[in-house]
Amino acid sequence: MWQPAPDGSTPLLERALAAVGGGRRADAAFDLALTGFLDHVRSIAASAAPA
After folding, report:
1. Which backbone phi and psi does 21 adopt, to 5 degrees?
2. Host H or E run for residue 41
3. d(CA 51, CA 42)
4. Cα 40 to Cα 7: distance, rounded to the nearest angstrom
5. Distance separating alpha carbons of residues 18 and 41, to the nearest angstrom
6. What is the DSSP letter of 10?
7. What was the pLDDT predicted at 23?
């Protein structure tokens, strides 16, 4: 299981944010990814709900 470094840093996350330009672009990319993931979870929940 993944664990953060003892100092709390997340080098992979920092590199990913740097790759997309950091700051607002990273926030927008995260928001977009989170929205897509939540939509996917909602669709699974809706299909699993009894009719």
Report:
1. 100, -5
2. helix 23-48
3. 15
4. 34
5. 28
6. -
7. 63
What's the token pair of residue 27?
A: 């926030």
Q: Which residue has the tokens 């993944």?
A: 2
Q: List the structure tokens of 11.
A: 């080098």
Residue type at position 38: L
What integer pLDDT is reported at residue 1 of this predicted model? 45
Mean pLDDT of 27-32: 79
Reduce the DSSP state of residue 48 to 3 states and report it.
helix
List the chain domain ranges.
22-51
Predicted TM-score (pTM) of the model is 0.47
SS3 call for 46 = helix
Amino acid identity of 26?
Answer: A
